[in-house]
Structures are given as C-alpha cells and as structure tokens.
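Thread: quick sanity check before group meeting

JM: Hey all, I'm pulling together slides for Thursday and realized we never actually wrote out the predicted structure for the chain we discussed last week. Dropping the sequence here so it's in one place. If anyone has concerns about the input, flag it before I start.
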Amino acid sequence: MVLRLVGHDDPRVVAVSRALRPQAWRSFTPETVARHALGALDHHRVMELLGTVPGVRTEDVSAATPADRDDERVPMLVEFLATCHWRTFTVVGVSRHLVSVLDTCWREREWLDLEAHWLRDSDR
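JM (edit): ok, ran it. Output follows.
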C-alpha cells in the first residue's frame, strides 16, 4: 500500500484530532484508537451532510461516539497501527495517517471493483 498523506488541515484530520486530543489516546489499544477515529469521521460526515439541509440545526446533533467493534474499517486501521510506532506521533500525525490509510484503502477498493468490471466485460 502506497500511503499518500492528506494535509494536516484536512477537515477530517481536524475532526479526528479534536476527538482524540482531550483523551489519553496514547494509552488506548489500536482498536480503541481506530474506533474513536472512525466515530469522529462518521460524525464529521453526518454534520457535513446535515449542513446542506435547509432548516436543520446541527447544534442539536449529539456528539460523536466510537464506531462499532464490527465496523469493517476497524481492522484496516488496526493493521496499520500495528506496523508503526503510532504512540510517538502527535495527535495530528496519527490523525493524518489514519485518514490517509482509509483514503488509500478506498482507492484500492475502487480500483479492484473497476478491474473486476473490466474482467466481466471481457468475458462477454
């Protein structure tokens, strides 16, 4: 996997950093870090979507909660965290890496789907 780091000012990085910063995130297990990061990303996306709906008050939306243990994205992030010394990163550094891992996995999945489509078309 070739990781292209997103910018430190990427809104998703900011969201993950804000979720982790007030906590003792360096003492978390990799799974707990992953779940908190994913919860922050999901909450950020929901807030973005709600912000486009006229008349919706986003201040009434509850705070982010960690993603479920069985979320299919958790193992991707845990696998990455297992390969590096993430506890030595800054909160922004770990957030950048986690968002970048998800972006990279998403791009790879899209590419595999496209290749599978091409293979199906070539069989016709």
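AS: nice. DSSP finds four helices and no strands in the chain. The chain has a mean pLDDT of 90.
JM: adding both to the slides.
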